[in-house]
Amino acid sequence: AISACEKGGVWRRSLELLGAMGQARVEAGTIPYNAAISACEKGAEWSQALELLNTMGHLRVAADTITYSTAMSACEKALQWQQALALLHEMPRLGLQADEIAHSAVLGACENAGAWDWGLHIIEAMLQATLETDGMAYGSVINGMKRAGLWERAWATFERARRAWAADWRPQGLELREACPEPAGTPGDNVPRILRESPGLIAVSKLPGVTTEDTLDQLRSSLLASGREGHVTAVSRLDLQTSGVLVAALGGEASGAAQAARAQFAGRLVSKVYLCVCHGEPLGPAGHRGKISARLSRSRAERDDHDGGVGDHRVAVSPRGQEAQTSYRVLEAYTSPDGRVFSYLRVQPRTGRRHQIRVHLASIGRPIVADGLYDPLHSQMDSAWCRRLFLHCHRVALRDLLGGSSAVEAPLPPDLAGALDVLRAS
């Protein structure tokens, strides 16, 4: 029962069940306490999680690595980096060895608080303990440096790690190749069009209605069929109905190519530009720039069945959510014959949260055209002239495994270009 509460994040009920076990003189062991702490972590109740951990000590209930990792994760979400760090230092005293998950939780807490110097200490400790220090770990520290305004140090830290990851790199085949300009693919295509290859990276044009996973599976099959290695690792995602540039690493999960790319995405060193059309009064004249800052969290009240039916949760603005920032520039504005107003925007997500652009624009009354998930009211009317979500990843820029600049662009596909022509004609 407590495990069910854990999965639903119903932390109060999990505490009640633990109390009931005590009243019934049923001994609660490590597993029920871990489940209750996890429920507190999911409910953003870090103080309750730590109180349960203290109770375990008083009752002589053995804590394990999972106990501490979960408690540290609760501290991470609440920006309690010093508490998380204290728990990490407490583990050896109890004979517990902190694993990669525990260290990652503390790194995340330090990142959120801008305590990048402690993050570097943690990475050093991981290296000494021969734990895997992957791109996500370095990206966490790099982002902390950026938040503190230390851009040069952030890039220097990435470069040191990149050179180490590139030491064993060998090309899979013809890399540093850029596709010749041609119209974007159509939904009937079976293989994603390769936009560019550079050392350790490959960028393709993702089609709407195809998941990121299926896109990369098709790419792997295509590479194998051409006599090349099929090692391709996802380092970013696009929503099901979003088209445009999708970057992947040319290498396996543990490859230097994957780590270098992940470090850049986690460290927010990647520049991404999207194009979208949204409802509502213009946010300003053409050329006007603005920023949306609102924390985001996954909602458990409603499942997301509009993005592939994989059971992912919707996302909502929440003061307890993760930090999220989106910048935009107004390109054009239109008024339809029936009086509805639309804006064509160039959008840059400064953080990489799920559905970030869609939720941020909807939160200020500017939902994206044909977004059935976050604006079902307008979506039905939109379908007459725009048959899917008007969101396209136009440009992605990052560094390849050898340090070269890799910027990739994908033009609007025919379906969205046609929808834009309809607005311009009106």
TrEMBL record:
Coiled coil: none annotated. GO terms for molecular function: pseudouridine synthase activity; RNA binding. CDD domains: PseudoU_synth_RluA_like (cd02869). GO terms for biological process: enzyme-directed rRNA pseudouridine synthesis. Residues 297-321 are annotated as: Disordered. It comes from the Eukaryota. InterPro entries: PPR_rpt (IPR002885), PsdUridine_synth_cat_dom_sf (IPR020103), PsdUridine_synth_RsuA/RluA (IPR006145), RluA_PseudoU_synthase (IPR050188), TPR-like_helical_dom_sf (IPR011990). Belongs to the pseudouridine synthase RluA family. This is Pseudouridine synthase RsuA/RluA-like domain-containing protein.
